[in-house]
Design a protein that fits this description.
The chain is of the alpha+beta class and 263 residues long. It has 7 helices and 11 strands. Residues 6-245 form the PPM-type phosphatase domain.
Length: 263
């Protein structure tokens, strides 16, 4: 059966004074069936983090609009977005008194395929129904300890150095990039992009169950409400994007002829 796409983006200030997360979702301007979701968690003092995160979104839109799938690989596009945004963010350090940094997670959907890249500890989850197929691995101290088997998932969520990043955009080191892709998409596949202001309060199973059970917009609202309650007045900025593949109702245009979105 043909597929269509149900989407949502959402943010919440949390208990911070400034919103430094950025999240956006947009179709390709001339190629039906293609869309991009981008999420960035900015860091760097007053306004600096917001400026860094905004640069990720700007560069994603610019490069995606120029993308030519007949002559350019998805991985090349995604890496160019992160690397060029990193360079722009670094240059702003010389033109301002701020020290801006940002995470990045970017997903590109085209007919029959999804590709993604990430840097930092903002995450992408791929669910199939209520099962977690995969998720990105954090470029963080805690993430590295987990990969070495020195820390389990439960301990990681409460580790005092959970926010220490080993790679991000805007630092002196070149950003470390993590790539992924999936083909043969089916109804029931869904993708969640989120900052640590959301995922820090949930297990993978909880996230998968909520995204599977509710339409994208309702799922985002429920996850944000639960994160706010669990933060107990000490929550970070929250940003989230949900992309769900569902069977196309009769009369609805389906992939790959075009992307239909609901926000």
């Amino acid at each position: 059966m043909p597929l269509t796409v149900e989407t949502c983006v959402a943010r919440h200030l949390g208990d911070r004074e400034e919103q430094q997360d950025r999240v956006s979702l947009f179709p390709h301007p001339s190629r039906p069936g293609m869309m991009m979701a981008v999420l960035a968690d900015g860091m760097g003092g007053h306004s600096g983090g917001a400026m860094a995160a905004e640069q990720v979104v700007i560069k994603a839109r610019q490069n995606f609009e120029a993308f030519k799938p007949s002559s350019e690989e998805p991985r090349h596009l995604l890496s160019s977005i992160v690397n060029e945004a990193h360079l722009v963010i670094r240059l702003t350090r010389f033109t301002s008194e701020k020290d801006p940094h940002s995470t990045a997670v970017i997903l590109m959907l085209q007919p029959g395929r999804v590709d993604w890249v990430h840097c930092g500890d903002s995450r992408l989850y791929h669910f199939r129904g209520d099962a977690t197929v995969s998720r990105t691995l954090d470029h963080s101290l805690v993430g590295e300890l987990q990969r070495k088997g020195r820390l389990d998932e439960a301990s990681a969520l409460n580790h005092p150095q959970r926010n220490v990043l080993l790679s991000c955009l805007g630092s002196d080191r070149e950003p470390k990039l993590g790539f992924g892709h999936v083909e043969s998409l089916i109804a029931g596949d869904s993708f969640l992009l989120c900052s640590d202001g959301l995922w820090a309060y949930f297990s993978d199973d909880e996230l998968a169950a909520t995204v599977n059970m509710f339409p994208a917009r309702e799922a985002a609202a429920k996850l944000i409400a639960a994160a706010r309650e669990r933060a107990e007045g000490a929550g970070d900025n929250i940003s989230v994007s949900i992309i769900k593949l569902v069977d196309a109702p009769n009369g609805r245009e389906a992939l790959p002829a075009g992307v239909s979105t609901s926000r």
